[in-house]
Amino acid sequence: MPLKNMILFDTNAILRYTLQDSVEAADKVERQLTENLCYVPVEVMAELVYVLTKVYGVGRETVAHTLTALMDMSNIRAGKADVVRHALGVFAASSLDFVDCLMVGYAKERGYSVFTFDKQLHKRLK
User: Fold this and answer.
1) Domain edges within the chain
2) Class assignment of domain 7-125?
3) Where are the alpha helices (DSSP H) in the chain?
4) pLDDT, tens only, 51-107
5) Beta bridge partners of 77
6) For residue 29, with 0-12 CB atoms within 10 Å meaning exposed, 13-18 middle and 19 or more buried, which class applies?
7) Which of these, 45, 49, 87, 99, has the minimum number of CB atoms within 10 Å of its CB?
8) Closest to 64 in 3D by CA, of 85, 33, 81
């Protein structure tokens, strides 16, 4: 059941916090993250991975560590957290793109079958 007082975060807000490229913005985000119950949807997590790696050139392991630490904050709720955590681990240890890592997460954490023609993904699913 959704909580009315939960704050939904977008990619830009989380980027300001993780990159600390605007101290004022990062401080505002940090206040929200520590003082309120906050929600980061799986779609935002996927966009964060993409932007951090492709736009900012952050390494895969650093991205996985940073986003896992974000999810570990006591006031943060992440969409499909079990799947995302698994996907971040796969992302750090492989060359799969993050959406494929999410597919692995769904398979391993939720027991879903994955239909794919992607040979790398198929290999990781075994």
Assistant:
1) 7-125
2) alpha beta
3) 11-19, 23-35, 42-50, 60-72, 81-93, 98-110, 119-125
4) 999 999 999 999 999 999 999 999 999 999 999 999 999 999 999 999 999 999 999
5) 39
6) buried
7) 99
8) 85
